[in-house]
Specification:
The protein is of the alpha/beta class. It has two domains: 139 residues, 3-Layer(aba) Sandwich (Rossmann fold), CATH 3.40.50; 119 residues, Dihydrodipicolinate Reductase, domain 2 (2-Layer Sandwich), CATH 3.30.360.10. The protein is 33% helix and 24% strand. It has a six-stranded parallel β-sheet, sandwiched between helices. The radius of gyration is 19 Å and the shape is globular. 41% of the residues are buried.
Length: 276
């Protein structure tokens, strides 16, 4: 018996966005423009009044508390401060939803979420973000990786307010040349710079883990782009990667972060998916 296209096609996946800052707005705009097989169904934000005022005319996603997103969405994208991850993730994973985590640094202090996903049939997806070459790192992990290092340089304003700088009374105002403000493991970096080093945590999760992945963070007043240099040594290859990301309206986050989330969403229903 032949089946028609209508009979065999799957319904659109409903997408919910948790957080409506620069990244959330970018993702919502892309979904409104159209991503095959996906529909923007709901948005949650701490400031509901501001959210309603900022939505363009004709936009009709449900505006709901974050705990209610799983009722409206099959895929939930976290675009919020790192501290908000558990409040977003727990109801999503308990409902067996797919959860796209952009603040992946927060996963290191919430590893129980992985078990929660497994228990309830949910999935946690981490986009590539500003980390070019993530597929190569994942492939190298199938053999033996001996070392992974990363140097992250940002304009000083992109680091202001980081807990590590506050705790160590490190002042960046008025610096004239590059200053190394941190060196240590990706796990330590994630706790000290929760809004700045999600890229390092993604690298560590793809490779040899957050305790063996080493990162140096520099405040550099001579640059205007968030710059990451990564070096990987493995039994299959030695490779280096460099990316200079244009900051978004939020100087802590690059424009490519939102674009990476959009690319991941496209792969969910794409007939051709490129990359590991």
């Amino acid at each position: 018996m032949a089946f028609s296209k209508a009979m065999t096609s799957s319904p659109d996946l409903r997408v919910g966005i948790a957080g409506y800052g620069a990244i959330g707005r970018g993702l919502a705009a892309a979904l409104r423009r159209g991503i095959k097989g996906l529909t923007l169904a709901a948005i949650a934000s701490r400031d509901e009044a501001r959210l309603r005022a900022s939505l363009p005319p004709g936009a009709a996603p449900a505006i709901v508390p974050v705990a209610e997103l799983p009722r409206h969405a099959d895929v939930i994208i976290e675009c919020a401060p790192a501290a908000a991850l558990p409040a977003i993730a727990v109801p999503a994973l308990e409902a067996g939803r797919m959860l796209v985590v952009l603040s992946c640094g927060a996963l290191l202090d919430n590893e129980h979420l992985i078990g929660l996903a497994e228990q309830h049939g949910g999935r946690i997806l981490v986009p590539t973000g500003a980390l070019l070459g993530l597929d190569a790192v994942l492939a190298a992990r199938e053999g033996e990786i001996s070392s992974v290092t990363m140097k992250s340089s940002k304009p000083p304003r992109g680091l202001v307010g980081a807990p590590y700088l506050v705790a160590h009374k490190i002042e960046l105002e008025g610096i004239k040349e590059p200053v190394r403000v941190f060196e240590g493991s990706a796990r330590e970096a994630a706790r000290g710079f929760p809004a700045n080093v999600n890229v390092a945590v993604a690298l560590s999760l793809a490779g040899i883990g957050p305790d063996r992945t080493r990162i140096a963070i520099w405040a550099d007043p001579t640059i205007t782009r968030n710059t990451h240099v990564i070096e990987v040594e493995s039994d299959a290859a030695r490779f280096s990667m460099r990316i200079e990301g244009v900051p978004s309206e939020n100087p802590r986050t690059g424009k490519i972060t939102a674009q990476s989330g959009i690319a991941l969403l496209r792969k969910l229903r794409a007939p051709l998916a490129v990359g590991t």
